[in-house]
Amino acid sequence: MKCEKIEKLLSPYLEDELSQEEKKTVENHLEMCPNCSSLLSFIKEAKNSLSEFPELEVSDSLLERLHALPNKKKKFKLGLDFFLRPSFQPVFAVASIFLILLSFYFFNPDKNLINKSIDRQIHLGYSKIEKLYTKAGSYKGNLTALKDNFLDSFKQKKTNLLGGGED
Amino acid sequence: MLVNSYSKRIFNMAYQFSGSYQESEDLTQDIFLKVYNSLSKYDSEKNFSAWFLTLAKNYMIDHYRKTKWEKTKRDNFNDCFLTSQTFESPENGVLRKESKKIIWESLNHLSSDIRMAVILRDIQGKKYEEISEIMSLPLGTVKSRVNRGRLQLAKILKEKKERKYEM
After folding, report:
1. Which residues from chain B sit within 8 angstroms of residue A65, using beta carbons?
2. What ipTM describes this predicted complex?
3. Does the distance separating the beta carbons of B28 and A45 come in below 8 Å?
4. Residue B12 C-alpha, separation from nearest chain A C-alpha, in angstroms
5. Where are the domains of chain A?
6. Which residue on chain B is closest to A64 by alpha carbon?
7. 3-class secondary structure, A118
8. What is the pLDDT of residues A47-101, one digit of tens each?
9. In order of start, what are the domains of chain B with their CATH numbers?
């Protein structure tokens, strides 16, 4: 077997995870190949070195920061929760629809045309109101005339009746 | 409490993975914050420890991919471990210390997934089944990653040591 294939079997060989047949093949190869044999000893050395790295203690300042985290998290959540309350949902919905409509206006390439048509509509509306106002004025005049007419005729009838009574 | 039970484990995992003391303190804090925010998603029928470590592993690998730590150097081995009282036993000679230094500094040559598998297996001494659960990978894939990692580290160790003795 070639060295490349044996290399892959060296780690499982160390952990005794090979079948009897594979184990025999590796051992036979190691006897003949000084390169693979030295690689095996370096794998052992690497494995031992790794297992001897000590565990470090956590610094007091980090422990303090970690203990303070739940409060920090709570504060943050409160702020966010306030805006995520269901009662705000209709407000956000209306605001977003308004913004979408507004964006149609602001990003429309024919913005001037829209402005003109809005101006025209406002103008038309204004002149309609003016016409209505003059109409209302003429109705008012008519009503005053009608009222005067009615009062005159009423007064006349009253004097007629009173005059007739004296006779 | 969560901090007392897991801070040391997470901090050491982050330190072994990143090789930077400062970075691992920040990572530990970020991971705890993430855990507090994700506790509602935890399925109580599952193993809490494995869930916590999976979240930590995912966070570290994602963060590593975003920031590309491999470009930054790991902390000096002597500074971080020689001050630790658990480090030296009488039988550990200069050569073993040298190997450990090389292995520590070479860990960033391994890809993030392979490095994490090697850390969990050879530094933390976890069983393959546990690693498979934490990494959410099939047993065979975990074993193959650990083997590849060990082989890479052994080759670096061999090359560096042989070059040194040739000089």
Report:
1. 29
2. 0.85
3. no
4. 6
5. 3-51, 102-167
6. B3
7. helix
8. 999 998 888 899 999 999 998 887 665 555 556 666 776 777 888 999 999 999 9
9. 2-166 (1.20.140.160)
Nearest-by-CA chain A residue for B8: A58
Task: Tell me the residues of A at the B interface, defined by beta carbons under 8 Å apart.
Answer: 7-8, 10-12, 17, 38-39, 42-43, 45-59, 62-63, 65-67, 69-70, 72-73
Numbers of helices and strands, H then E, in chain A: 6, 0
Place of tokens 């209505």: A132
Asked if the Cβ–Cβ distance from B7 to A56 is below 8 Å, we say no
Q: Is the pTM of this model over 0.90?
A: no
Per-residue pLDDT of chain B (167 residues; tens, 9 = 90+): 788 889 999 999 999 999 888 889 999 999 999 998 888 888 888 889 999 999 999 999 998 888 765 556 788 776 666 555 444 555 556 777 888 889 998 998 899 999 999 999 999 999 999 999 999 999 999 999 999 999 999 999 999 888 777 66
CA-based nearest distance A47→chain B, Å: 6
CA distance B166 to B163: 5
Nearest CA in chain A to B161: A42
